[in-house]
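To whoever picks this up:

The nightly regression suite flagged Diguanylate cyclase as changed. Nothing in the input moved, so I suspect the structure step. Input below, exactly as stored in the fixture:
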Amino acid sequence: MVGSPLVVLLIEDDAGYAKFVEEVISDVKLFSLKLFLAGDFKEGFDRLSKERIDVILLDLNLPDSSGLDTFTNLKDLFPDIPIVIISSIEDEDLAYRAVSEGAQDYIFKTEMVPAILARTLRYAVERKHFQEKLRESEERVRAQYKNIPIPTFTLKSEDGDFVLIDFNDAAPKIAGEEITGLLGKRAGRLLQDEPEILRDIGKCFKNKASVKREYLYKFRTIGLTKYLSATYSYVPPDLVIVHAEDITDRKIAEERLKKSRIELELRVKERTIQLVKVNVELKKEISERKKAEDALRRLSITDSLTNLYNQRHFHKNLEIEITRAKRMLYPLVVLLFDLDDFKEYNDTYGHLAGDSVLKSVGSIMRRSIRNGVDTAYRFGGDEFAVILPHTKEGDAMNMANRISEEVVNSIEDIGISVGIASLDNLETVEDFINTADRDMYSQKRARKKKMKQS
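Regenerated output under the current build:
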């Protein structure tokens, strides 16, 4: 093994067996091992407190600690170090219980030979490393879930019903702060007056497919009736994720538009014979109707806070641009921006200040792009995107740097990261997003690493 040896701590009160293990370790040829010995729990604790230990070989029955408590106490004190149980045949059940509690492996004392020991130690360290990476990944996913700007709820299938097990930070916007008291409650009881919603949840789970629906729903927790647009997504093996968007304002606008259309048609019929006389007024009414329709269309594709295009319009436009760029053989680049530590900024200065930052970034985006060629979007939360047709990657990076510099120089306590994706070898909208996202988070990690080193 190239590099530093794997450092092993053996906690074993039998001096003869400890000597035997030392001899076995000296015979391991696959990689270099360094062994420390401890005769009881206290001595092992002292050694772990002073030395860098890569893996622990632990006998569960020590003079000052015995049984499963020996392992659990040591794991609680040093959770980042993998532990392998050394056990007699008679204690196999106890060793197996330790593994179920988090030990990486166990090895019988009678089977302690170089090949088995080397394999066990190596796998223990690798499994522990994998578990840490998995935990970090789960924490990142959890943070992303909590920060989704759309109210989101997680339901778990249980005994023919669905139980509310989680919700994100945006959920109280439509369900009220009392939603915390609903955790663990069954959907069948919470939604007993909403059979259509229950059917859609069940349909999503049964068919393992997304379901989208609009409802007029009365929230008992806040005593309000709202229009909701709900999207149900199946997550194996037993979860349904619900994104519930308040579309009350949009529905009211649609109803007003519908009412205006009906009234206009009636007036047209009634006044046909007076067409010449009322022509000027009629044109005015038609113009107002057109403005209302245009306003509704703009509302559907525009982010109300920044006045940039929204994420839905980004997906539609990027798909069109990809098809056009491939057909006409010109370069296409997408930039994806993310504000650094924006949540901490919100927590420190408040959401009004955070909204002001988002508006300022939107203004910078608008004046930085080519009018009539490039398009800027609020991608969601504190993320922004720019689509750059007829642009080479180097020129796109120059624009990204200009935008980043202006954001950092004009907005105090705010940083920004950028990811880039170009048409080369990319086929779909998702390819562009995933490539730019990976590039952006790679830069974030590199910057944080550099800050820690400095």
